[in-house]
Write a structure and sequence with these properties.
single chain; 16 strands; 46% helix; disordered N terminus; binds FE(4)-NI(1)-S(5) CLUSTER with Oxygen; binds iron/sulfur cluster
Length: 698
């Protein structure tokens, strides 16, 4: 696969998504390049790719190459293990910084809401506010919502820069895990501090021991998983609502030929939540109609998309590699971006169309874009301004090309909802799932997460893993661009139950959840940590995450955030497998430390296996080994027969059919929740019509 990935791929091998292939042919027809085509001419540097290049000081860059590369050193004497580990640790720090700074922004917004300075926002989920206050040791009894919210925001902000103590969320890990971290000295202290310390240690001439460097990477990553990312998820839930299942659609076909299309792309839910309101504002819809459009259509790309899909049912236009393809449709009036995973290529590309690229974060500007700075103190005004810019731009459209692919999906599975589904509001638990794993109906659990990467066929690894896992009775959770990939291929539709193995199918029907659960954006990988911790403490499956028959995969990883996530899962006890290629491949020592070394130390590890078959085989091997260690019955696929559809799935199917029928009659549905659980969900589409559907049946 490594060698294959360096070849020029025929167009058909660039993606498994027919919408992407259609748009790539269209791009070629227009003489326009994309990341897919640039990858044909920009080969990855094999030295940097494998971790053998050090550019930490100006005596170098030193590149350790040749057959005896591992016997060579850089000018300062740094060996391959040090060079590869140092680079890896810096990737972890970069990823932690990105996620956690996003978390900090959420805390700042919550603070502004609590002090009454952020018009348009409010605490939407008071129940979650109380739960989070409990984690943070903040009293709630007899206190006003905003008083509690202010304390929550301030304690959250302290986690970034506190001068002593540990990150408070580390207490949410199992007692065994907390003890292990303490014993190893890797309990993270403050988020900013762990990032700074890795940057310090990996400066020229400081930490020169690969094992010690990688240990600091573990600690730093934990500041993300059990710090910045977890805070980000929780505070987003407080502000915008804890997700519960809802249905929507995915892929470029969600763009509408006759509507003003606005795409939100990036990661933060703050401005995009306001854009949801603006796109449903009758006054703005009337303005759009006056401009000749049928309405305003909001869609998302990357994790901003996941944030508003999970909470408002806003359709997803695609994942990371769809960002340029969306502009190429010619049907996007405005693409609004905030932070992370935004390609600079959008600047020049959008100038070839009428599309206005709007940057909104003071941290993220792009040449060629219009900058409309987002400020939580005047968010509704900013959102309205952006939507009006889109409406005004509708008249400037040239020819459009929207590929007609859109798949239905169900998203919005929070940890809270899974508890609720397995025991109701007052007896929420994970007992049914644990029992099913113990009995062998469910073989194990797999998280399939992360990015797209042009160096592999778009979505192929992700979809292959999901498909094989559910057929083999492994329950799957997905987040980020992987969730979107799975959805585009139809794996997040309730229909997919037909593709699940008999044991998994039976259990999912009984609990009333699909076999592939969309848990959210990439910061929401913290939800997976919470789920795994609860499964581990529920009883019958050991005491900690490293006892569980579970595996985490990131088949198409691309960025530093993915590396940070993989590392914090390993540090939390999970076996993690990444595809594409290993950033420490050049060093036998670093590779050994991150696999067998970390397994001995923390029970989890991080492996890089670029071949899909080998990745899958290794996943099952890891899951089955944990089953055996727990002395559970070996998985036996012939043990359980087929079962019929439960009422629950019949209901989802009926709901989706209703939606399709409405669409055929020309009634636009924005997507709405199937199950009214969390407050803040409504069947009101804001465009004057609601579903005639009786919620009581759901
Ligand atoms: O944070 S999966 S390409 S969009 S980094 Fe980026 Fe990767 Fe997508 Fe979400 Ni996550
Ligand atoms: Fe070379 Fe050492 Fe400088 Fe790295 S730190 S560039 S190995 S001299």
């Amino acid at each position: 696969m490594d060698d294959k990935s360096n070849d020029v791929k025929p167009v058909a091998a660039k993606s498994i998504d027919p919408a992407a292939l259609e748009m790539l042919a269209h791009a070629e027809g227009c003489g326009l390049e994309t990341a897919f085509s640039r990858a044909d001419t920009m080969k990855p540097c094999p030295i940097g790719e494998s971790g053998a290049c050090c550019r930490i000081c100006s005596m170098g860059p030193c590149r350790l190459v040749g057959k005896d590369a591992e016997e060579k050193t850089g000018i300062c004497g740094a060996d391959m293990g040090t060079i590869a580990s140092r680079h890896f640790a810096r990737q972890v720090a970069g990823g932690v910084a990105a996620h956690s700074d996003h978390g900090r922004d959420m805390a700042m917004t919550l603070r502004a809401v609590a002090t009454g300075e952020a018009a348009g926002y409010k605490v939407k989920d008071e129940q979650k506010l109380h739960v989070v206050a409990g984690y943070l040791g903040i009293p709630t009894s007899g206190r006003e919502v905003n008083e509690i919210a202010l304390d929550v925001a301030d304690v959250a902000l302290q986690q970034f820069g506190q001068s002593h103590g540990d990150i408070v969320y580390t207490k949410r890990a199992t007692p065994k895990r907390q003890a292990k971290w303490r014993e190893l000295g890797i309990t993270p202290r403050a988020i900013d501090r762990e990032v700074v310390e890795v940057m310090h240690r990996t400066h020229e001439g400081v930490d020169l021991d690969a094992e010690n460097i990688l240990k600091s990477a573990l600690r730093c990553s934990l500041a993300d998983g059990w710090g910045g990312a977890m805070l980000s998820t929780d505070i987003s839930d407080i502000l915008f609502g804890t997700p519960s299942p809802l249905s929507s659609e995915v892929n470029l076909g969600v763009l509408k030929a006759d509507q003003v299309n606005v795409i939100v792309h990036g990661h933060e839910p703050t401005l995009s939540a306001m854009l949801v309101e603006a796109s449903r504002d009758p006054e703005l819809i009337a303005e759009a109609k006056a401009a000749g459009a049928e309405g305003i259509n909001l869609a998302g790309i990357c994790c901003t998309s996941n944030e508003i899909l999970m909470r408002y049912g806003i359709p997803a236009a695609g994942n990371f590699l769809h960002q340029e393809l969306a502009v190429l449709t010619g049907a996007v009036e405005v693409m609004v971006v905030d932070v992370q995973c935004i390609m600079q290529a959008l600047g020049p590309l959008s100038q070839r169309f009428h599309t206005k690229l709007v940057t909104t974060s003071p941290k993220a500007k792009i040449p060629g874009a219009t900058h409309i700075e987002f400020d939580e103190h005047r968010a509704p005004e900013t959102a309205n301004e952006i939507v009006r810019l889109a409406i005004a731009n509708y008249a400037n459209r040239g020819p459009i090309h929207i590929p007609d692919y859109h798949e239905p999906l169900v998203a919005g599975f929070s940890h809270e909802y899974l508890n609720y589904m397995q025991g109701g509001f007052h007896r929420g638990s994970f007992r049914p799932l644990n029992d099913a794993i113990i009995a062998g109906r469910v073989r194990g659990l797999a998280g399939v997460v992360g990015c797209n990467n042009v160096r592999v066929t778009q979505d192929e690894g992700i979809v292959e893993m999901i498909k094989r896992f559910i057929a083999d009775d492994v329950m799957v959770v997905v987040t980020g661009c992987a969730a979107n990939a799975g959805a585009k291929a139809g794996y997040l539709s309730p229909e997919i139950l037909d593709h699940a193995g008999p044991g998994l199918r039976e259990v999912m029907e009984a609990i009333g959840i699909p076999p592939v659960l969309h848990l959210g954006s990439c910061v929401d990988n913290s939800r997976i940590l919470t789920v795994l911790t609860q499964v581990a403490t529920e009883g019958g499956l050991g005491e900690d995450i490293d006892d569980l028959p579970a595996v985490g995969l990131c088949p198409e990883w691309m960025c530093e955030k993915a590396i940070a996530i993989g590392t914090y899962f390993a540090a939390s006890g999970a076996h993690v497998i990444f595809g594409v290629s290993s950033p420490v491949k050049a060093s036998t020592e670093a590779t050994r430390l991150m696999t067998t070394g970390w397994e001995e130390m923390v029970g989890g590890d991080l492996e890089f296996i670029p071949d899909w078959d080998a990745m899958y085989a290794r996943s099952l091997e890891l899951i089955d080994a944990k089953r055996a260690a727990l002395k559970l019955p070996a998985y036996d696929p012939s043990q359980y027969g087929d079962s019929g559809d439960s009422l629950f799935f019949a209901e989802i199917k009926r709901y989706l059919a209703d939606q399709a029928a409405e669409a055929e009659r020309g009634v636009e549905t924005v997507g709405s929740p199937v199950y009214p659980l969390a407050e803040g969900h409504s069947h009101d589409h804001g465009d004057g019509h609601t579903h005639s559907h009786d919620e009581g049946e759901a």
